[in-house]
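Fold this sequence, please.
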Amino acid sequence: MTAVRSDDVVVGLPTADDAGVYRISDDLFLVQTVDFFTPIVDDAHDWGRIAAANALSDVYAMGGRPITALSIVGWPREKLSLDLLGDVADGAVAVLAEAGCVLLGGHTVDDPEPKYGLAVTGVVHPDDLVTNAAARPGDVLVLTKPIGTGIIATAVKRGDAPPEVQQTAVATMAALNAGAARAMRRVGVRAATDVTGYGLLGHLGEMLRASGVSATVEAAAVPLLPGAAELAATGAVPGGTRRNLAAVARFTDFGAASEIAQLLLADAQTSGGLLMAVDAPLAAALLQALEDEGVAGARIGRIRSREFADGPSGRIDVI
């Protein structure tokens, strides 16, 4: 993709980061992102909540604060009522209000498949900017949400997900990463990404490429949503997860990890947590800051010096 060049672009296309960052002044950067998707749950209000939290997450991953949003809607007006779209929008607005982000408007098109999401604008002070290109050898990897949403969403579509499993997954996806972002700023974390469609290992791989490093991930330390492993064992695995696994296998040594563990580590997430690389002496302080914000952080691995695998990415070793 070719982009117009500007000296005021702070973060752009080359590092595949979570959002673009543009310099407004020496003490104010603009953060911009967009995300939308088809329904992943049956309840329209929940879909709106999840879509909003997911779109806002990119701003939080950069250490920023979302301020405005525009809705992006594709809607089959002849098949689904506009009242149902109202339920989706109400869910999104509820999460935006929680985030202190204002919905300014949006655009809707007639579409045979329903889609909903947001274009979000945020701000960040240059001293607080977090990118996926600043991980350094010795950093500790910390994850702030359990994984497994892709597998559970697939089980929901098949009618195989127990209600309590579905409820926990929805609550996790609808939860904002605002507290995690505040903890990052408080401690001074400089490298992070949010875990979404490419899965934990896919987004970690992007961080490794951008930072020029490798990593070790402790499979047993990665938090899982209740029921995710059991549902994966029944075959409730989305196509996106299998594609992710094929992609990350080029630069990942899974060691003795089972097929189910590999699928979970590659599972395509929606509105996942933040994956942070924090200077080792600050790891305890970050975990405490997350706890103070009501966020459960888990140490899941460590950044190492770059070691090339069969491809352009730094290597990931799963132990």
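Residues 44-61 form the longest helix (18 residues). The mean pLDDT is 94.
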